[in-house]
Amino acid sequence: MEKAEVVIVGGGIAGLTAAVYAARAGKRTVVIEKQQRLGGRAVTNEKNGVSFNLGGHALYDSDAMATFRDMGLTLRGKKPSIDAHGIWKGKLHVLPTGPASLLTTPLIGLRGKIEFGAWLTKLGRMNPSDFDGISLREWVEGNVKDPMVRHVFYSLLRTTSYVMAPDLQTAGPVLRQFKAALQGVLYVDEGWGSIVRELEQTASKLGVRFLTKSKAVEVNHEDGAVRFVRCEDGTLIMADAVILAAPPAAAHEMVPHAEATSLRVWKEQAIEVTVACLDVALRKLPKPKQQFVYGIDQPVFLTDQSRAARLSKNGEHVVCVIKYQGADSDPADDLRELEGTLDLVQPGWRDELAAKQFLPRIAVCGDFPHVKRREQPGPAVPEIAGLYVAGDWASHGEILVDASTASAKRAVSHLLARSKGIGRTANNEHRVVI
Ligand SMILES: Cc1cc2nc3c(=O)[nH]c(=O)nc-3n(C[C@H](O)[C@H](O)[C@H](O)COP(=O)(O)OP(=O)(O)OC[C@H]3O[C@@H](n4cnc5c(N)ncnc54)[C@H](O)[C@@H]3O)c2cc1C
């Protein structure tokens, strides 16, 4: 039986980040990933010389970017222009994103323009943490007066967080992300797969061992402490510590008697966010000025990622269209809506099509900060010594990939503290009850 100090289940951004930090601290680390390739939802698919992320991916100037830089990643790419349009009542209009577009947009009346202009400066000074205790709906309705400005805010904040549930979503985290977005986001050359590649190389150089195409099926524990991880093919790896960097339901399933632990609470409170994505590579853009479009009365978003990132060998534009889904969705309806959005924004796009990818229903994140949460997940599973969680669902106020990197670092710092015997036992490892 192999022996490792740290076993990480899941080779997405959270698992890879945890692997680098654990190995940097000198821990003998193994990553178990059930897919053939590493990266989870940050993989990039290559098709006819075009790099397709799984839907549009923007890196905010937040935890993940800082963490990637700390790990020595190069992060090649550029900030896209934020000149935007909005879809309102089936038509495209200039969307206010700065003083010039605010003056010209026909979307908002004079009073709304004055209010929106004030917000452009107020947002920079605002402390989003002041709104950690209320829903996004409460924040918008209580702070934004003009009805059209409200619509625009809902649309911008939905796009920032991917979440279409203003009554559930906690206002603070999404406002924090929005403030970060105002500094500009990074569209990454060759897609997020290049981040995954660099993470894998960094981890490998530090001695991390990867087991891909290997599904973990049991995290064995005895007398309140982890012992080993068992894979579907029978591989067993003894471990001092295990980080579950897989989605909450998968994490719950792997741990015997998980129903008696916090893993059950975290699984039950998690609200998965899904979208439908149509990614297309176009030889040229029929409407070059329409590369960034928010749906205002429609839950859609379109961005040409190649206006800032190198994503194709032959200069095709890689355009992503996203539909935010609720609980019920129909793939055929969603595809029609996505294609309809492209028809509106880039009429004639079918004649320029070089490659495409349709994802009918993909999880953007496993959970997000919302008002029904009873506990912040992790970093430690308090009932089982040496067991930790990480992933975009294990957020303590971060969202999307920032939650993946932040939770991975929390898990590693807690396991390092435990391995040095700093004040942790099986039953008091960590618990934040909201
Ligand atoms: C369409 C779309 C758009 C997005 N846009 C953005 C964006 O603009 N900005 C942003 O910050 N984020 C964005 N995201 C979110 C971002 O991609 C994710 O938050 C991040 O990649 C999640 O990483 P993770 O490691 O937490 O989870 P995952 O990537 O899901 O990794 C979990 C890994 O665990 C593995 N696994 C599961 N069970 C087992 C098992 N039993 N044994 C072994 N392995 C297992 C899985 O195969 C997977 O590789 C987007 C996501 C999508 C889908």
Automatic annotation (TrEMBL):
Listed name of the protein: FAD-dependent oxidoreductase
PANTHER family listed in its UniProt record: PHYTOENE DESATURASE (PTHR43734)
Domain of life per record: Bacteria
Amine oxidase domain sequence ranges: 13-272
Similarity comment text for this entry: Belongs to the carotenoid/retinoid oxidoreductase family. CrtN subfamily.
UniProt source species: Paenibacillus soyae
GO molecular function: oxidoreductase activity
Short name of one Pfam family: Amino_oxidase
InterPro entries, per the entry: Amino_oxidase (IPR002937), FAD/NAD-bd_sf (IPR036188)
